[in-house]
Amino acid sequence: LVPPAEKTGAGGGIIAKDVLGNAIPASQILAEAPGTRALVAGLAGDPTYLIVKEDGSIDSIGIVDVCTHLGCTFPWNGNDQEFQCPCHGSRYHPDGSVARGPAPLPLKIVQVAVVDDHILITPWTALDPRTGEKPWWV
Ligand code: FES
Known about the structure:
Bound molecules: FE2/S2 (inorganic) cluster
Radius of gyration: 15 Å
Low-confidence stretches: 1-10
């Protein structure tokens, strides 16, 4: 199977992979319960959360699992509905905006699209929907 790289357009998209470098089929993520945050290897190998929405689709916004304080990775806490960094206690809302410092900035986001059974991840270069401003990583 040839990855549909031509469908990613400009901007250096990749196909979501697991930690072993194998492409993850969209159907595997879609089989998860709504509310799931599924960790995949994203752009530049950054661990990235894909979100299964309540309607069973994959959210078009993925959240990069790298704390904006000092770069730790962090889990999703479904009970608190927050990403919670174990290193120094930063907390983030579901959209990646900061709920509690010391994190200085919202989490980086990426664009996620399902094409056939592939999950394409491309850089987010539009305005940051959380701030309405140019993203800090662009
Ligand atoms: Fe996450 Fe410091 S690295 S709070």
